[in-house]
Amino acid sequence: MADLEKEPILQQSDASADIRKLRSKKAPELPILERRNWLIHLHYIRKDYETCKAIIKEQLQETQGMCEYAVYVQALIFRLEGKIQESFELFQTCAILNPQNVDNLKQVARSLYLLGKHKAAIEVYSEAAKLNEKDWEISHNLGVCFMHLKNFEKAKVHLNCALQSSKHDLTFVVFGKLYLLEGNTEGAVEIYKKAVEYSPENAELLTTLGLLYLELGVYQKAFEHLGNALTYNPYNYKAILAAGSMMQSHNDYDVALSKYRIAAHAIPESPPLWNNIGMCFFGKKKYVAVSMSMSDGSAGRLGLAPLCGCELLSCEDIKSAAALCSCENGAKLYTGDYTEGRH
Q1: E-only strand ranges, 43-157
Q2: Maximum pairwise Cα distance, the chain
Q3: Which of 318, 332, 324, 328 has the alpha carbon at shortest distance from 238?
Q4: Does the pLDDT of residue 298 top 50, yes or no?
Q5: pTM score, two decimals?
Q6: Above 80 in pLDDT, residue 214?
Q7: DSSP-derived secondary structure letter, 64
Q8: What 3-state DSSP class applies to 261?
């Protein structure tokens, strides 16, 4: 009977000994190459770049430059600072340290793109595609590079591949601009219609589709899409200018002015805006207000709307300007940050 009573006590003492052994064990130390990766990542996402660079310097000194993640983040910081060539060289180092990492190759290719070396960027992206054939970003950026080289057919092939991998708004936008560069407005409309199906609340897509309908003379659909764009973003000045000019062309000056008042907060020095505001007052026969509007902001300084010959900037004028801006500024690579999950 006494032995039975002692048995639980012995079991408890054994369990206590096991717990003490577990507590005495230290947490496993990270390899020296990766010891500060978490700290580098923390300061990078906080945008504390000076501290981040100091930690990277220490890490690279300890590892004799063999820490891939430290080199990678250093390259990202150099790119943010506008040091594209230095950033490119560091990404090349990352690719040498770990040639099987597709992110390293994508960053090398992006650096080449930023340096204007589109053919070289295509070669590196093609190598990256061998490691991951279904990567949306690689297909998208290949399409952008071919578009810059004016090889529109290959650009379409890669953009289609990107859309098959994943439906991204950015790819739809670039695809639409590709059709505009070819002068195929109908094709651009079809692309933007598909884009709106996947992103029905995207004000920029709705605005662009509305402007394209204006170019085709389909005013009802144009007004419908511009109105939808303003529903989701009442301060979208492109949609405001286009919708306001349509109202203005129908002599609905007060409603147009109410729209322009909102746009004036976003683009207070826009010559087209003040030109149209002046023409609203001209239509209302408020000539003093016309003079003040025409001299306000940069419109008067640029002499775009002298009182003796002022004209309303029509829907077509605004559409042409918007299309030109989109073609010149819109074809951009996906700007990704691959630090997540790599530390």
Answers
A1: none
A2: 118
A3: 318
A4: no
A5: 0.75
A6: yes
A7: T
A8: helix
